[in-house]
Design a protein that fits this description.
2 domains; single chain; elongated; 211 residues; Arc Repressor Mutant, subunit A; 10 helices; alpha/beta; Rossmann fold
Length: 211
């Protein structure tokens, strides 16, 4: 199966995204700092559909890398998502001012990142022509009918999407942790998915829960 999109991850500690993104149909390239990223993009920029760019890196940080990308006429429309541990509205505004398309604060919930990546690819001018010839369906979806979720199951899944673990969900809903597990198993069965990340992504795609 061909990949959904090619993503360049620019991060001095990229192992997590390098390991997880291919599980959801993405091809991943790696750059450990801004200099390496710019070298890769100048040579093969047209091969990438999106860049996930960490702010805090050695040698050349994410801000300077983003500025350099936007100054290159060939890369000006290349979608860029910034990753940072700095949870500051001013920093977010700065990132968008410099040309970032989206902004995610670490630590992040994986479903949130994946949903933002998919949404950005879907609306990007850069990828408009490419995506016409690619299957953007999530790799775990099936043609099997989906049984509607109960109100409580939707509540559980919404909390999962917010990054809550089973213990936290149990406390918020005033139920036992084993009850949360039972709800999750039912959700997986109804949505025809294998795990909580897939459940959240599919639920977001179908507007069962809010992003």
């Amino acid at each position: 199966m061909s990949s959904i999109a090619n993503i360049l991850v620019v991060d001095d500690n990229p192992k997590y995204l390098k390991d997880v993104l291919p599980m959801y149909g993405y091809d991943v390239g790696i750059a450990n700092d801004g200099f390496q990223a710019l070298k890769i993009l100048r040579k093969d920029g047209q091969d990438y559909d999106l860049v996930i760019l960490d702010v805090m890196m050695p040698n050349m940080d994410g801000w300077e890398t983003l500025k350099a990308i936007r100054k290159n006429e060939d890369l000006v429309d290349l979608p860029v998502i910034m990753l940072t541990a700095l949870d500051s509205e001013q920093k977010q505004v700065s990132g968008l001012k410099f040309g970032a398309d989206d902004y995610i604060v670490k630590p992040f919930a994986l479903p949130n990142l994946l949903a933002r990546v998919e949404a950005l690819l879907r609306r990007s001018k850069w990828n408009e022509k490419k995506l016409k010839n690619k299957n953007m369906n999530l790799p775990f979806t099936t043609d099997e009918p989906i049984t509607p979720l109960t109100t409580r199951e939707k509540e559980v899944l919404q909390l999962v999407a917010q990054g809550a673990n089973n213990s936290e969900i149990a406390k918020q809903l005033y139920v036992r942790e084993v009850t949360v597990k039972t709800h999750l198993n039912s959700i997986f069965k109804k949505l025809n998915v294998a795990n909580r990340t897939q459940a959240v992504l599919l639920a977001m795609q179908m507007n069962i829960i809010e992003e």
